[in-house]
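Now for one specimen:
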Amino acid sequence: MDELAARIQACIERNRDEILNFLSEYIQQDSTNPALGENCAPYACHEWLADRLERMQLFDKVDFWKLDGGFSNVVAVKTGEGEPLMFAAHSDTVPVTEAQLAAWNREAGPLSGLVKDGNIYGRGASDMKSGLAVLLAAFKRRAMENRIPRRGIWFVGTCDEEASGLGARAALNQIHGRVSALLIGEPTAGEIGLAAKGCIWLKLRGSGRTSHGAYPERGVDAIGHLTAVVDGICAAYFSGEAAHPLLGRATCTLTQISGGIKANMVADRAEAMLDIRTLPCMAHGTLLNGIRKLCADYCAAHPGFAVEMEIENLRPPVETEPNSPLAACLRACIQEAQSVPARETGTAFFSDASILRDLGVQDIILFGPGDPTLAHVPNEYVELEACEWALSIVNRVLDQFCG
C-alpha cells in the first residue's frame, strides 16, 4: 500500500510539474492582440502551440490554419465513436499599456511566466492560458495512460477572441460534423459557467448645426442632443427590474464620447460608443429596431438634428440548460471531488461561445481555473493549486462523459 501511495504521489507531482512548465513557457509566448502582420504575436504563439501539439503525438491530426491579418487557429483531432466533445480556448491576450506596465512587479513582468509562492504570473495566466493548459493536460494524462476516450475529442485553439472573434468565426468553416458538447476554458474560478451576457458595441453619430457659442439658439447642439438620446436609450431599455438569476441585469454604458470644435462654438458633430450587455431573454434584432425607432422619433421632434447608428460588435447571449449532459456531468464530478455542491455562475464578458454556438451545439459550458477578476489587470496570475484542482475535475469529466 505504501508503494502504491508513493506511485500516486509521484504521478501527482509529475502532472503538477507538467502544467507548471507548459503554462510558464506558454505565458512567455507573446500573443498580444491586435495583430500586426504575419510575424505578429498571436501568429507566432500559435506556431509554438501547434508544434507542441505535434510533438505530443497524441492527436490523429493537427492543423495550423493561417487567417487574414496575421492571425491563426490551431485544430487538433482525436477521432472516436459518436459526436465528439470539443475543447476550445483562445491564446490572444490584451495589450499592456505603459501605465499598466509601470504597475507590474518588475520580477513578474507580463511575459515572465514567473512561478512564485504557488502562483504563475504573466499576461494571460488567468485569461485564459491556464484554462488551455488544463484541458490539454487532462487529455494528455489519459492518452499517456493508454485510456483514450471512446468519444472523440476536438481541441480548437482560437485567435482574436479579445476583439472581433475572427478565430471562432473561421472555426465554423474548419470544423466538419456535429459536436456533442463544448467546454471552453475561460476563467470561472472553478465554477460552472452556464450563461453569458450578449454584447453590442453601438456607435452613435450625431449631426447638428454650428453657431457662435454666444448664440446657441442659432445652432443645433450635437453633443447635447446625442447625450439626450443616450439617456433615452438607457431609460427605455435598461432601467427595468428584470434580472437573470446568474447574470443580473442588462446594462448600457457610455464608454466613449467625442465632439465639438472649440470652446466658443456649438458642436455640429458628436460620437458616442455604447457598451450594451444583454440577457438571454433579449432579442438583439428587436432591441436594435427599438433603438432605431427611438432615435428617429427624437430626431423628428428636434429638427436639424440627425443620428446614425453603426454596430461594431454583436455577440448574442449564451445559456445552457442546468441539467444538460455536460453540465450534469461536471456538477457530479465537482461534488464528488469536494463533497459539497458545485457552484454555478454567469459571465458578464463575452467569449468564443457566442460564435461557436452557431455550430448547432446546445451544451456549452465555461469552466477554468482562472479568477475572472484578475483578467486584464497588472500582475495577472493564476494559482497553481487552482490549476491542479481544475485538472482533477476535467479528468473526471473525460472518464464519465467521454468514456
